[in-house]
Amino acid sequence: MEWNERRTLLDQARAWWEDPEQVSHYRKEVDSGPTPAEQLLFRALPASGRVLDVGCGAGRIAFHLADKGYDVTGVDISEAMVATARDLAGQRHSTATFRQVEQLALPFPDSGFDAAVAGKVHCYVPSRSGRQEFLDEVGRVLRPRAPLLLVSYVVPSEQEADDVLASDALHRRAAARFRSLEPLDTFCGDRGYVHWFTPESLREEFADSPAFELESVREDEPGGFLRLVVLRRRNTTGAVPGGTKL
């Protein structure tokens, strides 16, 4: 994907998560805590240590893990989400801390975290090369063999998804502005962007990561449209020292 188009999509993602309706929605969700599927995924966390919550939103997962005794840092590209999370942290007397980041370049030293979680974040990064850079950057700040826990969307097949997108006028209008989209790059209205995966393409993409080994992929529920993924940071990674700029 061309650099200018990738940057435009990242800027659109930031604008989407800055929308007051989105911020209000995620603030209301905080008290619900993790879903049963996420609780199952969290079994792969170490018993204690520093956890990075990438794409933390208003803090739903960060507060839960902090209450469990983890030292949690949440990061998000949205200033509004981070401001909301900080406000809630004060109200809840939570030990979780929050930082706004630029395009998911992480302002942390190498190997400083014992685990990371990223709920529905990877699928919002445009282009396969961009998503690999994202994985490299998260891998850089994790200790060797630390887990990265991901939640990602899937669709049953590329053909079924293409059929749906072909009938969606808003998607077609938004997609027409770009020349270098990948198959299954998807638009919700004029702003929202997400890359859908098939179950097979999701596994293939993680299998190609120089930063992580693919440990497990499971459905959130039988026939569900989410996959719960455990990646394990390799002892030696292809991560870029000092961070990357997506």
UniProtKB/TrEMBL annotation:
Gene Ontology terms, MF aspect: methyltransferase activity
CDD domains per UniProt: AdoMet_MTases
Sorted UniProt keywords: Methyltransferase, S-adenosyl-L-methionine, Transferase
Gene Ontology terms: biological process: methylation
SUPFAM superfamilies associated with the record: S-adenosyl-L-methionine-dependent methyltransferases (SSF53335)
UniProt domain Methyltransferase: residue ranges: 51-144
Amino-acid biosynthesis listed as a keyword: no
Transmembrane segments: none
InterPro entries (alphabetical): Methyltransf_25 (IPR041698), SAM-dependent_MTases_sf (IPR029063)
Name recorded for this polypeptide: Methyltransferase domain-containing protein
